[in-house]
């Protein structure tokens, strides 16, 4: 339907152009240019959201090479590289965006994100320090919280995490990060609450389920939590609980959990089998 409409429009413009004098050509060209800009904007949005990440990288790389003066295309390339899991290349692109002198506060936040993914916490912090406090976005505070965590600035981390949670309708990931922060500090009860809350927002977030098992195991509670899980996830979580029990000296509990994990898995659970064999070999030795 859209293709038919577009063809009709182009034919109409062509007929009109033939009937009109040269004074109308500029108006027609401007109309066509406007239509092309709309099409390109839609295509860029598609590439940044639903397109295959590697295809998006290739698209924005070609577009940036063809029009190197366009910062928006470089931004698209940087975002696409992050989606493709190529953070090192993304950091190079974002640095180039910053060096254009046209960088926005969001550009610095995106650059900081790429730097953190590369483990360059110090420069990421320096970039965020240049973002004014009035720029309040979920992504900004999520990164601020992670940096505060890395610096063991716990009060700041908690404040940033809390702010980030309030700025998004999908807080599962940041709640999971906050819970892991609490767990590393030894506050397993607070960690358990945060992991549980994360799962209520995203029942498919296996990382939060696994961390929840670890938080409970830290207090000697090795039974699985009452959360939604597949049969494979159940086996994997039992395996996690087993290893946690063994590390805490509860060898018999760990052995039982490993056996339960093997029975629960719908296929062969090689990791649990190997762990149980190693445990039995150690005991016999």
UniProtKB/TrEMBL annotation:
InterPro entries to which the protein is assigned, alphabetical: TPR-like_helical_dom_sf
A UniProt-annotated Pfam family = TPR_16
- SUPFAM superfamilies under this entry? TPR-like (SSF48452)
Q: What is the protein's name according to its record?
A: Uncharacterized protein
């Amino acid at each position: 339907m859209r293709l038919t409409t577009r063809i009709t429009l182009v034919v109409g413009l062509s007929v009109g152009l033939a009937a009109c004098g040269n004074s109308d050509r500029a108006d027609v060209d401007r109309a066509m240019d406007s239509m092309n800009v709309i099409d390109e904007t839609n295509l860029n949005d598609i590439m940044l959201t639903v397109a295959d990440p590697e295809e998006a990288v290739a698209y924005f790389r070609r577009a940036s090479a063809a029009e190197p003066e366009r910062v928006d295309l470089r931004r698209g390339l940087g975002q696409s590289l992050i989606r493709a899991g190529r953070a090192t290349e993304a950091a190079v692109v974002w640095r180039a965006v910053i060096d254009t002198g046209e960088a926005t506060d969001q550009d610095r936040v995106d650059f900081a994100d790429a730097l953190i993914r590369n483990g360059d916490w110090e420069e990421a912090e320096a970039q965020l320090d240049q973002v004014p406090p009035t720029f309040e976005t979920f992504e900004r505070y999520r990164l601020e919280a992670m940096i505060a965590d890395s610096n063991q600035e716990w009060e700041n981390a908690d404040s940033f995490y809390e702010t980030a949670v309030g700025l998004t309708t999908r807080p599962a990931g940041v709640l999971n990060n906050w819970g892991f922060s609490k767990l590393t500090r030894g506050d397993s009860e607070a960690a358990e609450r945060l992991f549980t809350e994360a799962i209520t927002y995203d029942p498919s977030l296996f990382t939060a389920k696994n961390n929840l098992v670890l938080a409970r195991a830290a207090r000697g509670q090795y039974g699985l939590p009452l959360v939604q899980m597949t049969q494979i996830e159940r086996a994997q979580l039992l395996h996690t609980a087993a290893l946690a029990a063994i590390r805490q000296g509860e060898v018999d509990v760990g052995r039982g959990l490993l056996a339960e994990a093997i029975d629960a898995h719908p296929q062969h659970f090689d990791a649990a089998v190997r762990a149980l064999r190693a445990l039995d070999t150690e005991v016999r030795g």
